[in-house]
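Homework help board

Subject: predicted structure for assignment chain

Our instructor gave us this sequence and asked us to write out the predicted structure in C-alpha cell form, then describe one feature. I got the C-alpha cells but I'm not sure how to describe them. Can anyone check?
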Amino acid sequence: MIYSNACYAPGAGEPQLAENVAPETAVERVSTYSRAPLAELGASAYFATDFYEGAAQLISTMLDQPELPYGRVFAADPHFDGAGLATGAHSTVTSAEVWLHRSPYFDGRVDYWYAFAGDPDGTFGGSTVPGGGEAVTFGAGSLSGVGPTPLVAIGGVVTGMASYYSENPGYEGLATVALPAEIGGAIPPGEPLTVVVCADRCVELPVVDVCPCHVGTPDQRVANLSAAAWTAVSDEPFSEGLVNVQIDLRLGADPGPPLAPVTDLDI
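My C-alpha cell output:
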C-alpha cells in the first residue's frame, strides 16, 4: 500500500499548519493509517510519501527489483537521508516496524514527510505481517545494513537518478552520457558505444566517459548527462539537479539484433 501526498499518512500534518510534531504523534499517525492494510487487507508493506514523484520512485524500484528488501526500497528514494531516520514498534500490529523520516522539504520546513510500516526485510512478494497489539517503544534508529539500491542491470536496464555536467572535451555541445564503470562507463578509444536513456523522452546517447557517480553511497547516480543530453531526454530545468532515468544498456553492449521499442517513462 502506497499513500502519495496524503496529509498525516507519513506522520506530518497539513502543509498550512505550523506544527512541531512529536515522534509519538507521528508514529501513531503512521500506525493508524497502516493498520488496516497490514492487519486486515494482507499487505506486506505500507509506504507514505510527500516527496515529489515519491510514489513513482517506490513503484519503479519494486518493479525493477522485486527481491529488494523493503528497507532498501525505502532508502532508494533520492531524498532519503539516514540521519533523518527513526524506527520503532508499530502500535497495533505485532511484528511490524514503523520507520519515520524527518527532514526539510516544503519551503525548508522540517517534518515527517516519508514513512514505512511492515517488515523491512520483507520483499514485494513477501508474506503479510500478522495482526495484534504491541506497545510503542519508539526511539532513534539507523539504517544498519541498509545502503543504496545496488547498481545492477535488470534485464539489461538500469533505473535511478542521473545528474548533469556541461560537456566532454571533443564532444562540445553534443548530447552524451557518462556511466559508472560498474555498468559500462569508459572513455572510448574509438567510436563510442551507445545506450538508450529515457526520462520524459527516450534518446540514444553515446557513452563518452566514466563517472564515479557516488556509487555505493546514499547519493548514488546511474548516469551523468551532458547539458545537451539532459535537455534531449527531460523537460525538467537544470535547477532540479537530478532526474529519474531508465537506461537500456543492451544497444551498446550487443549491437546485433535491434532493440524492442522503448516506451516513454511515466514519471
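Reply (TA_rk): Your C-alpha cells look well-formed. For the description, you could write something like this. The CA atoms of residues 164 and 239 lie 10 Å apart. That's the kind of observation they're looking for.
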